[in-house]
Specification:
2 copies of one chain form a homodimer.
Chain A (H helix, E strand, L loop, with lengths): L15 H14 L8 E2 L1 H8 L3 H13 L3 E4 L3 E4 L4 H25 L2 H14 L8 H17 L4 H23 L3 H16 L3 H30 L7
Antiparallel strand pairs in A: 1-3, 2-3
Helix pairs in contact in A: 1-3, 4-6, 4-7, 4-9, 5-6, 5-8, 6-7, 7-9, 8-9
Chain A binds a DNA duplex (30 and 30 nucleotides) through helix 3.
Protein name (chains A, B): GntR family transcriptional regulator
Organism (chains A, B): Bradyrhizobium jicamae
Keywords (chains A, B): DNA-binding, Transcription, Transcription regulation
DNA sequence: GCATTCAATACTGAATACAAGACTGAACGC
DNA sequence: GCGTTCAGTCTTGTATTCAGTATTGAATGC
């Protein structure tokens, strides 16, 4: 049985494909491409300073991961900002997290739980002003570490994919979230985990995610506004 | 709100990449490649009668979907028959199915439920002898249709990926499954769904999947045997 | 004035060619 | 005899090229 801490899906490499992949993913996540826009391979390749071959490999990866859409004979398209899809992804995330915390209650090592508490402690006070992007990153890290304690690498893999795909919406969403509330809920989940109290964990987590789910519709509307204001990104 | 029946992730095309992708996936699923084996791109390309370019696109897809492993500078490798990974996938599947049936109870249309019952009726009697492969296919179809009734396309997408990755193990597993038992359990879930009885659905489904989970370890051992007996596949 | 068709252009799909890096085997030194 | 190093070969990584197809725009006919 491998340790929870041993789960690591990182693949670090510096090949051109990987670099292009990361660049494109960042672009796709931040909707630097307009929803529905077709991506011109030649132009993109020139812009990124690579040939079409590695570019297409990267585009294909992003397609299978759901960041882009591909139509044979037509090419790659930026995905639409589909409210239903975002909703589905949130629902998927909720299901995964609740299932994983149930597993974590049985499997998590006390030292890992304490480490997560320490992480919350360290990142909690919110010194000065954190950007929305940073807050989402911290939030994702917390939830991924929580899931890692389930010991299930496949669930973690899916969660990471989901998180990346809903990240843009969350950037907007995070602006209006009560940060200290979030912090308290996170702590409550981990405390519940430490006490091996399944009901508390599941209940808090469920509400915690549901609260965000409620705001999605309006967040998406704001999303559209932000997408069409390139000034915000420079 | 789009209909449950409207969910369709099929992308049918006849491009070389798609064809090669399907061929490779079939090969990967059936472990025609030996676990851990490195795939020689040039040789594979020649064997499949295509150039390396579309082959690599297909290989990349399979890598992101977890059917193959890729190491930069080294190439593509057949995934190991990892008991822990299979276990994780089963656990993921169980989590997804239980979550989705809860959603289906709220959302499924009676006509869709009846259609699924009809499907069970039609495929139930098991005329003559069905092969293990066919049984798995029927089983997957049932579970995917059940999940489609949750209305969540993303969960369905993940389930399909999971199913494909554990298919090989299930072929072996299915041999020793009590078919009429399975049939009865499937029916019980759908009946529970029709009655909007969450507890019944979840309980039956949980046991249904757990029962398979129990056999995985031994199934994997047999799997190794079958992998190294190419005669069985011709 | 509008629709339809044809041609030109541009883009994707795939193959080939070339470069860079990894592995293998032998030979040399310790 | 064993280890290390170097060279040759093989494989992957990327670019370029060519072919096929879709789209767009203009011109002609109704």
């Amino acid at each position: 049985m491998n340790s929870q801490a041993g789960i690591n899906l990182d693949i670090s490499s510096d090949s051109i494909v990987d670099r292009v992949y990361e660049q494109l993913k960042a672009m796709a996540i931040s909707y630097e491409f307009k929803p529905g826009e077709r991506l011109n391979e030649g132009e993109l390749a020139k812009r990124l300073g690579v040939s079409r071959t590695p570019l297409r490999e990267a585009l294909n990866r992003l397609n299978t991961e759901g960041f882009l859409r591909f139509t044979p004979g037509k090419g790659f398209f930026c995905r639409e900002l589909d409210a239903h899809e975002i909703f589905d992804l949130y629902e998927l995330r909720k299901s995964l997290e609740i299932a994983s915390v149930r597993l974590a209650i049985k499997r998590a090592k006390d030292e890992d739980i304490d480490a997560l508490l320490a992480f919350l402690q360290a990142t909690g006070p919110d010194p000065g002003e954190r950007s929305s992007v940073e807050l989402v990153e911290l939030d994702e890290t917390f939830h991924e570490r929580l899931m890692a304690m389930s010991g299930n690498a496949e669930m973690l893999r899916v969660l990471r994919n989901v998180n990346a795909r809903i990240r843009f919406v969350r950037w907007i969403d995070m602006d209006r979230i009560n940060r200290s509330n979030t912090q308290a809920e996170h702590r409550a989940v981990v405390e519940g985990l430490k006490a091996r109290d399944e009901e508390t964990c599941v209940t808090v987590l469920e509400k915690h995610i549901d609260r965000r789910l409620d705001r999605i519709t309006s967040a998406i509307k704001e999303g559209y506004a932000q997408i069409y204001m390139p000034a915000a990104r420079g």
